[in-house]
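[job 0412] stage=fold_complex status=start
inputs:
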Amino acid sequence: MATRTTSVHPRRKSKEDKVILEHSLELCEKMLKDLEGGKRPKLTATKCALDNSIYNSKVGFLTPGSKRVSTELNVSSVKKMSRAVFMLEILLRNIETGNVNTKRELYYISKGEVKHNKLMKALDFGDQNESDSVVDFICEMLECYREEMNCFANDRGGQTYSQNLVVTERLPDGTEAVIDLSQLGTSPFQPKNRPQNLTLKAKGKIDFCLVVESEGTANTLVANGFVKRHNSIVVGAQGVPSNAVRGWVKRIQDQLRVPIYFFGDLDAYTMQNIFRTLKAGSAASLIRNSDFSAPDVRFLGVLPEDIKKYDLNDYPVNERDAQEIRALKKARDALANDPFFKDKKNKGLSEILHWLINNKRRCEQQAFYSVDPRDPQMAEKIIIEKITKGHYV
Amino acid sequence: MTKPRQITTSSTAEYFSKNLQQVGFSSPTKAVLTTVKEALDNALDACEDHHIAPDINILVEKVGNGSLKNTDRIRIRVEDNGPGIDAGDIAKVFGEYLASSKFGRGRCSRGQQGIGISAATTWAIQTTARGVSVTTKTKGQKKAVKCLVEVDIKNNKGIIRDKEAVDWERPSGTAVEFLIDGRIQLNGEAGLVNYLRGNVLVNPHMTISYTLPDNGTTKIERVTKDVPQIPEATEPHPHTMKLGEFISHARLFGKMKTSNWLKQGFSRLNDKILAEIWKGQKLARALLDKSTEALNEKDISGIYTAIQKAQLPPPSTQSVMSIGEEALSLSIQRLGDVDFFSVISRKPMICDFKPIQIEVAVARLKDRRGEDHDEPVQVLRFANRVPLQFDKAACAIVKAISTINWRAYGIKQPRDSLPQGPYIVAVSMVSPFIKFKNASKETIDASDELVEEIRRALMQAGQKLSRHINRESRVNDHETKIAHIEQFGPILIDGLVRLTKADESRRIKATEGLRKLLGRDALESEKAVKVAKEKSEAVDAKRHRIKMFREEDQAIESREAEKRAAADGLDEVDAIASESEDSDDSEGGVAVVTAKSKKKIATKQAGQIIKKPVKKAAKK
Ligand SMILES: Nc1ncnc2c1ncn2[C@@H]1O[C@H](COP(=O)(O)OP(=O)(O)OP(=O)(O)O)[C@@H](O)[C@H]1O
Ligand SMILES: [Mg+2]
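[job 0412] stage=fold_complex status=done
writing structure:
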């Protein structure tokens, strides 16, 4: 057996859980007090938007500025607030008991509550969008991730392979599971959306971690022997990194202190939405970026110069593809407004954006397979060459 | 009273009898609609020509099974109080193609060609072997003439049968009765009811009573006694003609001095302008003095080119007419229980080098409010006051409606489509030269310029409407706010009390606090509603309310117009000439061109502003 479970303890609330519970009760207490005094309760939260984002290269990720958003109780917001308190009750109960739910389940749970209590009929959610937005509102006000409210989305991305990595997971019931990745055969290890419960240890030498945009390509590299030949960790990101991937890579950076390289497409979308989020977090998650970004990640490619050097097949941006056009427009915005790309420290990255805007061409990570079509290890060889020669940004 | 006009004929009965689908008889349902339409159009045209306020009776009923598959035998009777038809003309009118008093006159009448009613007769004969039964009486006659008219296809001639003199209580008028095979479609966009409602809207001066199967009799009274006058046509503008048309135009005038032909046969050409053209284009002076018959093709095409190159004032807009905002306002309320509405009469203008006038009415219906609001609005299209019911997709009117952002006015609208909700959006275009997309005349050609003009009218109407919608949404807002307080207040407090494990005394105190807070809010929103309500007082006194809305709208509009004028730096031009060009028209008085005479008019051509010569309306 690759995993081992320690003895069963009764359910113990984690430190984070306690913080959330306390914070929630404080909030409710204050609202009730205000009401008793005939004062309008007011909920405020950090504004999570690009215009409130600060980037300091020494910190390495986007941090919030001083702007706040607030919701004050009045005739128009009374519905939203009462729904928030109603949903908060359900979420806090989950934290107390250690239950978790998806957003969709929460929608049905709230429907069920309303069904059994006629007085609450007015709260009834018409569709899941309504209940989702209330959950989001609560997280904004408490400045926490919904995973911390025990509300989980489908785990997505983060499939990880290594011959030298051992992960210890602290379980909600206080027990622990130890996973030796070298014992998983061809199966990957996949981190959960709340990677804070994971502790990483190297059982041998680990030279670097490679994060691959396409999970499929990550699988291919591993199947062809990448982690056997190189002391490494290979992680598949699968598109825009989920919280799980972001927190996981951050754990790798902090606990293993190995260089991390990102390998993905050369296009505006990858640079801005995938790589920037991985390295410095996002404007939407300003308050959580400290735990969910890995500032040391380097952009290995595909780099513009790789196209010539390896004679890669690139192609023009499809002017009819709305998404690609939007990405280019966003890239222009980013160069003008995104403090991450405006920072001198990231000049190499903003130059890539410039190149993309000017040349309107893109090149996919899989293009490395065109270099020597008969050699299944070609992509691996190029990746290693780029790492050893320092060809990354 | 004017005499019925000379009726001209042309022999093409055979062609039309074989191609009835081209003139509206393409299916059993359309056949019924077209028959009603041709008869009603004629009745309304005739009344208008003789300044009679129309009193129309229509009966459509099933009398048995039709001989064609899936059809019924249907009786259609349309009766008017118009001038009647001279006994000697009956055969021509109903049995002869291209016999018309309106043919090629460039007026905005409904009928244009002299095909309509004869085609209906032909369809009747083809399907039931029975011609049209006509009863008609002209003023002063003691008895009416009643007869059956058939079409002699071979000779394009009408044949009269069973002629008799009968008593008829109407002082004058015409009744036509067809027995045809067809199918009755009452409802839906292409239904009879919609068609009749459309006519009700654009004919405020009409009283109509219609009896439809399973629908009983509906009588709708006129809302104005003013019978609109179709202005006489102006002569064609030379820039609207192609070379071939120009040549045949010359031949039409026969022997005449060329300069006289040009001056009399066209608008906007006079001695001064001709002199300038001749000088500018270096034409031989002698050409002007030649007889038109002596001109060869080369001469004519030389003249044609020179005139095309010359800068001419745009065509006159006197040949168009409007229903008028006043009358439209009254008329639209006949379409149902109207909540509120707005109407716009644009000034007559030149579009694609032809005079046109656009009018728009948008109304919200009360009785449809409970229904599904995702339904597209009801679009009513009119070309020279004839409702258009088919092939709407490519129509200039639909294009204009769906390219406007109605959301800005508070009306729901999916992207690039018709807006939604219990609204009627009616657009009427009047012009002696409406360009249709196809032969069936159901789709107005969507030129950019025309679509833009319709859009402008719709936007004005939308702005007016949005004032009413906003007023209403404030009332709604208030209602939901009150409901919110009552519903959510206690729930919010209960939740907080449970979470904080507070006791009953805190709950009571918090409830009081919340009441106070939200009561304050409610009071405020109530005030806002009151302010809005005061503005739109006397909600039940419909007429009054409408008048007020209109005054408010007009005040706002004139202010806006002033601002615009100030911005454009345009000079005020005194008044639109509203004189009739028809000199025989001795009794009828002034032909009203626009409802409001004191309006400035400025037309633009090639970026240059040309002031319209000011003529004072002849007071009679
Ligand atoms: N109800 C009526 N009362 C008086 N005159 C009529 C009536 N119906 C028809 N006429 C006369 O008969 C003529 C022929 O009518 P018809 O419908 O065939 O042609 P139209 O109305 O001129 O053109 P269109 O083919 O476009 O309808 C009309 O021009 C009109 O002079
Ligand atoms: Mg007719």
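[job 0412] summary: Chain A has two domains: 15-149, 207-389.
[job 0412] exit 0
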